Amino acid sequence: xxxxxxxxxxxxxxxxxxxxxxxxxxxxxxxxxxxxxxxxxxxxxxxxxxxxxxxxxxxxxxxxxxxxxxxxxxxxxxxxxxxxxxxxxxxxxxxxxxxxxxxxxxxxxxxxxxxxxxxxxxxxxxxxxxxxxxxxxxxxxxxxxxxxxxxxxxxxxxxxxxxxxxxxxxxxxxxxxxxxxxxxxxxxxxxxxxxxxxxxxxxxxxxxxxxxxxxxxxxxxxxxxxxxxxxxxxxxxxxxxxxxxxxxxxxxxxxxxxxxxxxxxxxxxxxxxxxxxxxxxxxxxxxxxxxxxxxxxxxxxxxxxxxxxxxxxxxxxxxxxxxxxxxxxxxxxxxxxxxxxxxxxxxxxxxxxxxxxxxxxxxxxxxxxxxxxxxxxxxxxxxxxxxxxxxxxxxxxxxxxxxxxxxxxxxxxxxxxxxxxxxxxxxxxxxxxxxxxxxxxxxxxxxxxxxxxx
Amino acid sequence: xxxxxxxxxxxxxxxxxxxxxxxxxxxxxxxxxxxxxxxxxxxxxxxxxxxxxxxxxxxxxxxxxxxxxxxxxxxxxxxxxxxxxxxxxxxxxxxxxxxxxxxxxxxxxxxxxxxxxxxxxxxxxxxxxxxxxxxxxxxxxxxxxxxxxxxxxxxxxxxxxxxxxxxxxxxxxxxxxxxxxxxxxxxxxxxxxxxxxxxxxxxxxxxxxxxxxxxxxxxxxxxxxxxxxxxxxxxxxxxxxxxxxxxxxxxxxxxxxxxxxxxxxxxxxxxxxxxxxxxxxxxxxxxxxxxxxxxxxxxxxxxxxxxxxxxxxxxxxxxxxxxxxxxxxxxxxxxxxxxxxxxxxxxxxxxxxxxxxxxxxxxxxxxxxxxxxxxxxxxxxxxxxxxxxxxxxxxxxxxxxxxxxxxxxxxxxxxxxxxxxxxxxxxxxxxxxxxxxxxxxxxxxxxxxxxxxx
Lengths: 454, 454
What we know:
2 copies of one chain form a homodimer.
Chain A: H1 2-36, H2 39-50, H3 58-74, E1 78-90, E2 96-101, E3 104-107, E4 110-112, E5 124-131, H4 134-139, E6 148-151, H5 162-181, E7 187-191, E8 217-220, H6 222-234, E9 239-243, E10 247-261, E11 266-276, H7 286-305, E12 312-319, H8 327-338, E13 342-348, E14 356-362, H9 365-372, H10 375-378, E15 385-388, H11 396-402, E16 405-411, H12 416-419, H13 432-452
Helix pairs in contact in A: 1-13, 2-7, 3-7, 7-13, 8-11
């Protein structure tokens, strides 16, 4: 009995000492990143000198070269490209819209949604019908024919986590066109997926249902959405003019950019950390998702800088085409399967470089128990919530097909949709310290997973 | 035994039911604020139409009128002014500095520190000595005579909470001039109290030690501080030109603006919630402390809007002169003493309108036990840390002299010192949702204190 107690005591003591050494090591990571991080300067280069990186655009390839270079500088053993066929949709010029009432013509801040077809040359003009939600569309389906449907479905301000408001509103952007086309609409204009106080229109992917005619789809800025709604409330016989040259070209070639740091004990086991390199075209793609890319690179750079030797192979992946189809994440997961790779963990950052609040995990309950024990180690760096939930589009396939635990950094969500997919998603909206604090927590988590396994 | 158990069960049940009703009530507060808050539009008016509000400036009085009006609109029973004699220091024109090396003259972004004396007309030019900290000043005291001391003491990047970095660096701003004057310096230039990535100089209060000559003191922007340091490292015989017309006028009259909402049960017991109305003069004073003012007004407006009847008298106080002497908080506390008022709680918001993380309290341990039990009620709104610590300059006197528990909202600290006391502290740096989330947590806390006491 005594020896059991004594052993337990030793184990307990060993546990406490281990936690202390982890705490000290994470403090070293934090010091390194706060004092010498290259995340912010990397983000400057990506956002300001390359800029928008829509799948298939010339910047797609410039950003791949930049990513390879940045990963080499961060100290990756091997840097390589992984091919994926990606969509190549182009905007084809400036999207336009105007509210027409009698002889007055009020221009509106609009942008075609990703994958929208073009209007006929010179645009189309049609009567306008304001629809709040799909239930109202069904009720008023007989009024829709020949009209442009304006979905004025606002973000729900009462959700504390703004991602829930996005989830609730985004079906109007994704499916609104085909659901209106079913009843004869000739175009749709969607209230932007945002609750910003400005008038930037927010684009994003939409998906046609092949059973119905493909009609052009645009998003309108929030101030102009309110202007449209006020006009509908006070006037009759309103018309809307819309014009876009958007169109799809044949799929083209894109690449995931991968930097590998070979494990010292079990190099055939993989830990992935990444963000996506592509962005929508009006934006510099700073918060979506330049921040996730540069934070992931910083994980590698900082762990090397503090002299860490990984047990497993750590891969930093800058995914291609997250925004418009997720072809990069599918290619990565498929290759992992084909090569019979063992993936133990995959982490992404794709919710902005805002101050970190927690991590969201997809995994088995014993894995959740393991990671939850680490919360006190990250707590000094602003992270307190370790929740079971989703893990982000680029790493979820590794959970589903490859058995890895998948996770995503949860930054504070209040500002993200102010800039999301809009021209306001610029470098200046990212705070250096908040970005670094996210990188510190990501690096600490990768360190703990690598050291203790899952 | 059975009846005791049964009673315990009932008590437990009553406790659970009460917590549920509090949870529902706080949800109503959140809905009200997220959907109908006037905090953001109030901030717009204060920051953009009144602007900088340095003690004694014409805007001091404009902002008092604005505050009275805003408190009436929010539904205060009584709105009144409380007199305080406040300092009246004026900048007197544009502050200037230049680095002089041979025939080259490089202008620098500078601003005189609050309470600085002027240079002689036309400015002064003197050799420059770079000093990193007070220990170095003491070591090199014989080299200081006739020179301008440049304190290049940077913020410590490794502190996660940026307020600690401020606390560590701020003595150079506050006491640097007199400590250098002791050894014959003719002026000081201080590296701005910030770790922003821009070049705005940050002002703030400095204090002369009457035992030594009063010499002019300025702050320099961070980019120019680095430029100065590089010049010192690479060149000899550098001189610095500085010029300021800053000077103090006799004290003048200012006012705390107070809005009272009379309690329905114990109106002679007071709960105070406030921010400070004054600001430094280069800034719109949006984050410091327009946000605290409009959040405090929102506490009153939202509680009235959801139909709450306070037990105690709730006072919203917009304090005068927090920045340059704290005369408003002293007047408020002194009046509370003179009138034998019983103050149970005083809350301030003066750390920016950023996403809320917690509250800091000064109080007795049993009071800490009481408030900590409320953490789960605020947790859904982003607040998890209830810490014992300071409570902010405007409410601490109520703890010290009047026995109230004092507290301060803790927003995320990463961005605060980017804008603090600089021209970059503008309305546009405040996010509507983050501001409202702070107001929600403040309102919920005031509700709980009013309902349950302390």
